[in-house]
Amino acid sequence: MRDVTVFLCPKCGSGRALSAHMIDTRVRCLVCGASSVARGNLYGDRDWERVSNFYTLVKIATSLRCIPTARQWRLLACAIGRSAFDWCRNPWFRDALQAAERWADEGQPPRGAPQCLGQLERMEGAAHLDLRPPNWYGSEAEFTFQQQQEREQFGWIALARRAVSDDPRLYQSDITDGNRPLATAFFRELVPNPFRAHTWNPNWSVSTTCELARHIYADRNFPVMPILADALQDAGCEDAYVLDHCRANRVHARGCWVLDALLGKS
């Protein structure tokens, strides 16, 4: 696939692919309607693995019409939550992630999801209160730093709330500085490189590979992914991108695009 010039709206951050002749002209954002000079950045195949900014990665994908589904957004929130906040033992957080994963598999909200959402919204409201003492005389920078630390500590609330919402898309306020690298890594896990034309060969979906994929997905036994690569190769798969994804030392999660292809999920 060709390289693409992506315009990131300076007002709302939404992405749009631009034609070469549009550079340095004015362009209107299709989301918020703001008009600005179309200074875009050129991205290509190799940049997909190099980009470190989560939002830029999302905009590249959407600009190339590789738009994450609600299921993928839901599983992305769960993957970040389980990894970045594995220490969190709040029962509403844990119940929300389990409910969201069931929602992703069943296609509809399971029993208990509305209650989780209500509790998380109440907790989020309390966490975002301005706790500045009425007679605060410290520096604004110190108070801002303290607020940022609290957002990092309670970031699990926003992720869990998104996971059990009707609209599970993650926004800038949902990703903290601390979990942004994980968000970027998991996004690449769920969304394959949109610059590469990739067609899944149904001949690779034999009983051995499908059973192994079901086991990995159900038990979250992601260390077995290299064995899945061997099974795919035995089934005739010589696609280096597929095999390298399974064998690479990287984070894996439910929603992995290779597992989804084998299990017929989207």
TrEMBL record:
It comes from the Bacteria. This is Uncharacterized protein. It comes from Gemmata massiliana.
